Amino acid sequence: MTILSRQSTPATINEATVFSTTTGDSVGLQNGVFNLTYYESILQDSIHATFTYIDSGTVNGNFGGKNAVDGLPIKGSEEFTLSFTDNLDNKLEFKDDNALYVNNVTPLLDETTKSMTQLHLVSKEYILNEKVRINSRLDGLVSEHIQKILTEEKYLNTKKDVDIEETILQINETPKNKKPFYIMNELSKKGVSAENQKLGT
User: Fold this and answer.
1) What Cα–Cα distance (Å) separates residue 123 from each residue in 33, 135, 139, 160, 167?
2) pLDDT value, residue 128
3) Is-contact 64 51, C-beta < 8 A?
4) 122 close to 104: Cβ distance less than 8 angstroms
5) 48-55 and 33-39: which strand pairing?
6) Distance between CA 59 and CA 70 in Å, rounded?
7) Average pLDDT over residues 30-51
């Protein structure tokens, strides 16, 4: 019997491009990739990825020998387009409305001829969650509250497809200046599925 295992096969990075928040310039980092870690869980509010790359100042020739962090520059909140194929041939793409964003920039090595940098990548909604606070009273169904927090411009303003299970019972919530993810997690504990109620009758 032959056993085939691909668990140790590395992922293939197809694209890794970061865009400046001010100038519109961009730099491709896929040729300098050292390590990519991607993880998601139903227990987390956002997907997360860490992208570690080596930059000799020649990854992109537009910055006069400067590395991407100093030349673009990369400070945080930059859009990051990522596409890779994992060791099971699943292709994951994060671009346009689904693009990732730089949350943290961590220098790991800084020498005269090269540097190594780790970028912590998250969703746009994760970035906005750190900046937005909810003060307005929420009246209505839990499913309506979640829809409002996710899609309204003054909150998380997501452009992603949203699939929210309809709930029953009116819930009045006073957020008290809390972050959107915190409020949604609290509300989810109070949600009663309308579909389950129909099945139980």
Assistant:
1) 20, 23, 28, 11, 26
2) 96
3) no
4) no
5) antiparallel
6) 13
7) 92
Give pLDDT tens digits for 149-198: 999 999 999 999 999 999 998 988 899 999 999 999 999 999 898 887 65
Are the beta carbons of 80 and 100 closer than 8 angstroms?
A: yes
- If you compute the radius of gyration of the chain from its CA atoms, what whole number of angstroms results? 21
Q: Which two tokens stand for residue 157?
A: 């303003």
Tokens of residue 94, six digits? 């994060």
How far is residue 21's CA from residue 14's CA, in Å, rounded to a whole number? 23
Please tell me the number of Cα atoms within 13 Å of 119 on its side-chain side. Answer: 31
Length of the chain: 201
> Tokens 């956002």 — which residue?
46
